[in-house]
Amino acid sequence: MKRVAIVGSQWGDEGKGKVVNYFSKNYEWIVRYSGGANAGHTIYIDGKKYVNHLLPSITPNGYSKGFLGAGMVIDLEQLINELKILEADFPGISSKIYIDYETFLVLPWHKEEDELRESMRKNPIGTTKKGIGPAYTDKVSREGIKLYNIFDEKLLKERLSEIYYLKNKIYSGKIKSTDKDVFEYLLKVKRDLDKLNVNFASAVKMGDVFRSTSVLFEGAQGVLLDLDFGTYPFVTSGSTMAHGVSSVGFSTFELDKVMGVLKAYTTRVGSGPFPTELFDETGGKIAKLGNEFGATTGRPRRVGWLDLPALRYAKIRSGLNEFVITKADVLDGFDEVKICTKYDVEGKIKEIPDSSYDFYKAKPIYETLKGWKSTNDVNFLKYMAFIEEFTGVKINYISYGPKTEEMCTKNNMIMRIKG
């Protein structure tokens, strides 16, 4: 496979970072095409934990390189911090990172806006307050800064002055970061990026490079948080699906495979509908065993049983044709597990939502399956077979722990099955 996209099949936090890191050694380029610093991808290298919010989940001591695409909104200060952490253990890693000139920047005032807007809402959305929403808002309303602006100081000053004038009017002087503050901030981060030897590039020129080698596209969050097709308004501000590769100049028709990552159960951070959410002792137990806390915010994740109608919805929306299942080991030792197979939506039985609105009205209909002692148990194989039969998507890889190497193919797992 030369061009593969890996996306989240649920509400994010499925373990995409580890999965991308596992496969990255086989690809020359790892491309982040959407999202911002509100997405935390956790990887383990030689037993040490790293949390990347913006960097692609490359293997730092391998040959692969990373590209940050125009569909992202980038907090350059956060990016620099991540690079410095990796540089301490892998000197020269920054020279393997390329940023598209067209990427949009998250600026200090975007974070202020995020807090202000969330505090003003009657019903808060549950934003991470990383400035992602306001940055995407400025992108759409043509009031923002792209990476290439920082290479023209005269134009940058003019742009920032115009933008600050408008923001000052809208927020009645509540924005503390002035245009001069942001200008100095951007000059500083540019100097830092230059010192680290980060590369700047155009996806137009990189297109021929990408098409002549192997590329792994790394998605952010999950399909159910997509701006267009997720549980709006409790979504992120960009594309979380494979279609987002268009921001790097690719079509989904050019992809050889779209892999969806799913947990053996379901989690969600923040507000919004969650049909299979558990509020009992079982939910608390799964959350504790799975260490379900957001990699970016540290907030406890909401926990529920696996939701098959949601997975079928994700399959159709994002063109998923293979699954990787993670955290199956968290359910080790349960006598039985439940799995949602259908929704009751205002009296109508549905195996797949018609639109994201159905998630708000859905009442889960469960089937109960026998639990497993370990992922080498035949009952876990039956659990996966149940998922495959319902969704029509094969599970080819299983993650059974947090470390990158704690992955195996389903065939290898079958060889270890105990009846």
From TrEMBL:
Checking InterPro entries in the record gives: Adenylosuccin_syn_GTP-bd, Adenylosuccin_syn_Lys_AS, Adenylosuccinate_synth_dom1, Adenylosuccinate_synth_dom2, Adenylosuccinate_synth_dom3, Adenylosuccinate_synthetase, P-loop_NTPase
- Per the UniProt entry, the Enzyme Commission number(s) are 6.3.4.4
**GO biological process, alphabetically ordered:** 'de novo' AMP biosynthetic process; IMP metabolic process
Q: Which residues form the active site?
A: 13, 41, 139
Q: Which SMART domains match?
A: Adenylsucc_synt
Is Ligase tagged as a keyword? Answer: yes
Q: In which pathway does it act?
A: Purine metabolism; AMP biosynthesis via de novo pathway; AMP from IMP: step 1/2
According to its UniProt record, where is this protein mainly located? cytoplasm
Binding-site residues, substrate: 295-301
One GO MF term on file is: adenylosuccinate synthase activity
| Reactions listed under catalytic activity | IMP + L-aspartate + GTP = N(6)-(1,2-dicarboxyethyl)-AMP + GDP + phosphate + 2 H(+)
Query: What cofactor does its activity depend on?
Result: Mg(2+)
Q: What class of enzyme is it?
A: ligase
Could you say which residues form the signal peptide? none
Q: Which UniProt keywords apply?
A: Cytoplasm, GTP-binding, Ligase, Magnesium, Metal-binding, Nucleotide-binding, Purine biosynthesis
**CC annotations in GO:** cytoplasm
Family that this chain belongs to: Belongs to the adenylosuccinate synthetase family.
What assembly does the database describe for this protein? Homodimer.
Q: Please state what the protein is called.
A: Adenylosuccinate synthetase
